[in-house]
Amino acid sequence: MPAKKSKAESKTKVVKAKKSAAPAAKKALKTATKSPGKAKAAPAKLAKPAASAPASVISQDQIATRAYYIGERRQTMGWPGDPSTDWIEAEAQLIAEAKRKRI
């Protein structure tokens, strides 16, 4: 069995580790605080095209409401189907409407 280390031994190792890390931290601080005149300017970023506008978000509530009405109509008309196909149809309709609004 390995012998247990005393508290003093473990503390000295922690202090040694902190001391060895200190010069690296000081060096990083010095390089970060150098005058900005010496640093090269970053190239200007080009604006993104308007076509990559953020997509409209379709909520689960919107899909559920649309699926409800699709299901109601389906049952009234006596058409075959189930709630999962109503949900898929509702998603497809809402996505198509969102695309039409963006264009």
Describe the fold and architecture.
α2 (60-77) packs across α3 (83-102). Helices cover 62% and strands 0% of the residues. The chain has a domain at 56-102. It has helices at 7-32, 60-77, 83-102. It is mainly α.
Structural class: mainly alpha
Mean pLDDT: 72
Q: Please work out how many helical segments DSSP would assign.
A: 3
Strand content: under 5%
Count all strands and give the number. 0
**Between the first and last Cα atoms, what is the distance in angstroms?**
74 Å
Q: Largest beta sheet, briefly? A: none
The gross shape turns out to be flat
- Provide the low-confidence segments as ranges: 14-18
Classify the helix fraction into a percent range: 55-70%
Rounded radius of gyration (Å): 32 Å
Topology of this protein?
Blueprint: H1 7-32, H2 60-77, H3 83-102
In short:
With 103 residues, the protein is an all-alpha fold.
Features:
103 residues; mainly alpha; flat
